[in-house]
């Protein structure tokens, strides 16, 4: 594996870590919004793409780029227990991970994303508050660490922080 030279998003334009809308440097998703009816879209509609509003009751042909909420409510979740097949990158050895569907109430969207390492399905409960974060996905052949957006329980300070409820870390160690 090459030495990491810098970080870059795995997919450009889906999230940012700081700009005029978010001076704290905290990550936020980038979506599209219809200025006529207020419908939000994620992932964002690329410029030059079809910019028609997805709301069938709206005839607008304009969508604007907007920062989306950084917190939401856990709507559903599951646990991925199998490594993806090639050509998708996967750590070796593979570790199971949780996937969360988080409802952004203001936008009326449900956004899927990986949950930070160290959090499994048993650590989650529908209705808890989640917050956006970023995490490494893989290091490419040029030494660029590709990062993605993801979710963590609100209040967990560090990426991959141990579960607030305790116990899970011990169970994970017993499985090894």
Automatic annotation (TrEMBL):
PANTHER family: BLR3430 PROTEIN. Residues 156-176 are annotated as: Disordered. This is Benzoylsuccinyl-CoA thiolase. Pfam families: OB_ChsH2_C. Residues 66-133 form the ChsH2 C-terminal OB-fold domain. InterPro entries: ChsH2_C, NA-bd_OB-fold, Thioester_dehydratase-like.
